[in-house]
Amino acid sequence: xxxxxxxxxxxxxxxGIILTSNILGEACLLEGRHVKGAETHGMAQRGGSVESHxxxxxxxxxxxxxxxxxxxIALDMLxxxxxxxxxxxxxxxVASRSIVVPTSVFVQELPLPTAETVQERLPxxxxxxxxxxxxxxxxxxAQNVVMLGAASPFIPLSESAMIEGVRRCVPKKSTDVNLRAxxxxxxxxxxxxxxx
Amino acid sequence: METRYLLxxxxxxxxxxxxxxxxxxxxxxTPSSEVxxxxxxxxxxxxxxxxxxxxxxxFENALAAAWCGQRALCTMKHVGLNVAADPLMTSAYTxxxxxxxxxxxxxxFAHSSQNEQxxxxxxxxxxxxxxxxxxxxxxxxxxxxxxxxxxxxxxPVLFRPTTRICHSKSDVALGxxxxxxxxxxxxxxxxxxxxxxxxxxxxxxxxxxxxxQVRQALADRGYNRCxxxxxxxxxxxxxxxxxxxxxxxxxxxxxxxGAYPIDPEWLRGFVERHDDVLVVEELHPVVxxxxxxxxxxxxxxxxxxxxVPYTGELSPAxxxxxxxxxxxxxxxPFPEAAAPPAPDVPPRPPILCAGCMHRATFHAIRRVFxxxxxxxxxxxxxxxxQLGAVDTTICMGASISVGSGMNLSGEPRDVVCTxxxxxxxxxxxxxxxNAVYSGANMTVVILDNRxxxxxxxxxxxxxxxxxxxxxxxxxxxxAICRACGxxxxxxVDPYDLTATMDVLKQAKARSGVKVVIARQPCVISARRSGxxxxxxxxxxxxxxxxxxxVRFGCPAIEFVxxxxxxxxxxxxxxVCADLCPAGAIGREGRx
Lengths: 196, 591
Fold this sequence. Notes:
The structure holds 2 protein chains of 2 kinds.
Chain A: E1 5-12, H1 17-30, E2 35-39, E3 49-56, E4 69-74, H2 77-82, E5 87-96, H3 103-107, H4 115-121, E6 126-128, H5 130-137, H6 143-151, H7 159-169, H8 175-195
Parallel strand pairs in A: 1-4, 4-5, 5-6
Antiparallel strand pairs in A: 1-3, 2-3
Chain B: E1 2-7, H1 8-18, E2 23-26, H2 34-40, E3 48-51, H3 55-67, E4 72-77, H4 78-83, H5 85-94, E5 100-105, H6 119-126, E6 130-131, H7 136-153, E7 157-159, H8 163-166, E8 168-174, H9 190-193, H10 197-221, E9 225-227, E10 232-237, H11 239-247, E11 253-257, E12 259-260, H12 264-271, E13 276-280, H13 286-294, E14 300-301, H14 316-325, H15 357-368, E15 372-373, H16 398-408, E16 414-420, H17 421-438, E17 442-448, H18 477-483, E18 488-492, H19 497-509, E19 513-519, H20 523-528, E20 536-538, H21 548-551, E21 557-560, E22 563-566, H22 575-579, E23 585-587
Parallel strand pairs in B: 2-3, 2-4, 4-5, 5-7, 6-7, 10-11, 10-13, 13-14, 15-16, 16-17, 17-19, 18-19
Antiparallel strand pairs in B: 1-8, 6-12, 9-11, 20-23, 21-22
């Protein structure tokens, strides 16, 4: 039977979800662990809802069954709600506090749950102000790495392997920004964990 | 030896380098595209590589290279294999001298496809071997071996990964890249390569006689393997084999199929040792049909008796539920979902990008042709469905032939087809000249964004650069259309809404086949090439809250507190400024 640690990363196309999963993959290689992953490509990428499955120590298929993910990282709070049912009982949810409003809401005038309602419906989530921390790190584009840093204490990989993963996966000119982003996220989550 | 975290497709591409591939061609299609793209990205490339205009052309080019003794790869998705089916069938007769690997990637659940067909059926139809990997490592190992297998059997080999192989990732152990390359040289032999009836009858006979050798070669390689552990058994192929192994108890036998044709005696030997057999596979019941042929009195379960669904994609949870229903496991080992999916989260479907020229073109078409029929085609612009401007989508190039068929059937409304640049070159040209020659009345709008965008920005003959990175004179769509007999051919900038609508009105007023080429580079490739357009903004005091701009459907336009606003996603196309009846939208900083 399986003994993998299963992480689902979700968000909106363009938020850097595949890069985030690549960092975890590199970290697994550095530690000599098996890893399996599945990601969304093609049509779904165009601003759609995107998911990436990562199974650390995975040896079978790449897909995480609903109700069994150990960790859910949501780069968008609404997407966190959409994929909440993938989490196992007692699993950890780390979510960015922001919401990218789906265009369907404006075009079709659909009701949109407010940030407060979404937050209420994710009572056990560790919420991170990724946008502010990414700006503080030096680039709003680094929100994905902030979120990885915030989730990193829950991931069974060494901090140094994940940091080296960041170094290997991000563009050279933005290495420092991303290393800062990882650290700011990790620090923010320390506070969060005491709050949960 | 090196281990890397790779996409299945990247692992396949690396395997081709290890095998010393000399010639690679393909037509982009999800989930196959990253193989050629990964090969293109090699720093030192000493072999020919091309994005062809369609799969048939890609296939025939690669086949010729294999006839010349080179190792050749041809990639496509399952629906592309339909386009290449004509040469595929006959290539099994002619055979090859160099290794010829045809990769056709299948897409269970049709994640980004128009159907769920199974490429394994084509391999059986053509009587060529088919390899069916269960994970990225196996995809790598099989792809590397497929060239040698093809050379040994002198047959094309069909390599058939699925979406969850192509687009899944894992740690993959790689071999060394081969530095050896062969120069092509054709050995003339008309009895082998000229399929006139007298030759082809003999070639067909030889192909049939070769089948035992094919089965033996595959058996020797051990792609099909089994373990006998009890009186019941599960047989699985592809990614389903991984799902089954994840949950299978130790007292149930397991047989994994990785290659076709399956040796029937070996399969019979396994099945006969069991009281009950379940076959788990995606798409068509290819394995199940073989199992049923040899099973005798042993009960067989699978798609054909409803134990396994015929449609869609399998998953670990779905496979566990199937095994539980058949009594192979007591209850699914996965915990019940802690909470059901949230029911009221607004959908977030894929959408045309902010600033995408297709949105502006569709808008202009809808304004000019209010009561028309809109046949469309395969590409990003199929998302024009959300704008009410896509009525039909069948396959590459069909917008024009469906449109002319509707018009010639007597349908009284205007017909306006939309087709992308790459799709037009792929299969639209014959349809266009046919429509002209048949006397159809219709307007064809070529959505020319200068690239094959949907599948990841592969170059095509209007891009002005090849897959090898060499500059070329872009093909003139205007000249092609005129050569097909179209006299009204106009090129417009879809960001200029007024001018675009004017030209569409002229087209509407004329009879015959009219072509309007709407040309603007894809916003993503434009941004990558350094084009920066100033974003637009709403002047709040002028906004009347009429929602005209919101209904345009651009992801950069929001509507909060009764007013429109434009986000940082804005690509600066400026079409919303033309739309706004209150004149409230302008370039940022100018008003």
